[in-house]
Amino acid sequence: MLIRKLCFTLIVVCPLAAQASVGFTQIAGQSPDGPVTVFYPSSGESRTMTRGPFELPVAQNGDPVHGNGRLVVVSHGSGGSPWVYYDLASTLVQEGFVVALPEHYRDNYKDPSKPGPESWKRRPREVSHAIDVVSGDPRFAGLLATDKVGVYGMSAGGHTVLSFAGGRWSPSLFKAHCDAHLAEDFPACVGLATRLDGGALDGVKMTLARWVIDWRFSDAAWYTYSDPRVAAVIAGVPFAADFDPDSLASPRIPLAIVSARKDRFLRPEFHSDAVLRDCHGCERLLDFANGGHGALLSPFPTDVKGPAADLLNDPPGFDRAESLAVNAKIAAFFRRYLLPLPEARKK
Question: Where are the beta strands (DSSP E) in the chain?
Fold first, then answer.
């Protein structure tokens, strides 16, 4: 028994880099969910896979190998793709995790037509569906224990994460936030449709924005979600202005926050800092002193244009090495709360 425990410890603790490639596959989601992209430890041969502007070294459909037995689900931001989370996924895979990225319905890079409250309601359920389809896939079923799953989310994906942590949110609370702080938090309240530029039309834009927000966010209901399998979560530069602060004062599971001082899309004082200000059990995992909203996207999407690029691009002087360094902190957080496996699952 002692030898068995020692062998298992060596398998879990030692880096997998020397023995495993980053496997890649996609699994059909539960209709109408999009596909679930999966990165995992694999014995397959790594080759370059091109997706848009990205060249990613993966073993496509390579045979999975046993890692640490744990699953981490990544919830992408609005209009996001799996590819901008490859560096994080690769770090987690080298630590033994299987990483699943659900494509959020009509709020992804292929179809960005329905961001906002309808997506926010669906997203946590889509994460649960991703856990179901990955753990039910014959290639992974014997390699995973899903009693403790980690979830990481960025931007709108951070909103997903806060729901799992016990947060309750309401569209009308967001409306109240924008009524009070429309000019200061204009990109968060309005999105990419228009922006304030100091011109003569700014007043008209503000008036029209208030009309649209009052109509679109009139729902006063509270929304919550839970999945007992989710045991630890990280919210990266989260969209959070519509959450009841009291609901996140004592998260029901470990919650960490990544913030960025120069985030002009979701200003920290209204979003990430607002959560941390009232949360007694939260951990500030990292605060990018010179990072913007796109600091967590790695590899960075070089094909983004227009207002999105203005809000995602790195501020002058930001060191992209910081985007890679935070991945190790994310992996360490999930190791701390998801490992070790129960004794029965080690055998």
Answer: 21-27, 36-42, 47-51, 54-60, 71-75, 98-102, 149-154, 230-236, 255-260, 283-288
pLDDT tens-digit profile of 259-317? 999 999 999 999 999 999 999 989 999 999 999 999 999 999 999 999 999 999 999 99
Specify whether 109 is located in the same domain as 179.
no
User: Looking at the 3D structure of the chain, how many domains does it have?
Assistant: 2
Contact between 259 and 253 under an 8 Å Cβ cutoff? The reply is no
Question: 146 and 254 in one domain?
Answer: yes
Return mean pLDDT, the chain.
93
Q: What angle do CA 196, 200, 206 make, to 5 degrees?
A: 45
Q: Is the pTM of this model over 0.70?
A: yes
Quick one: 24 and 158 in the same domain? Answer: yes
Both 46 and 152 in a single domain?
yes
Tell me the residue range of the domain where 184 lies: 170-221
Using an 8 Å Cβ cutoff, are 83 and 109 in contact?
no
Retrieve residue 57's tokens.
Answer: 């070294």
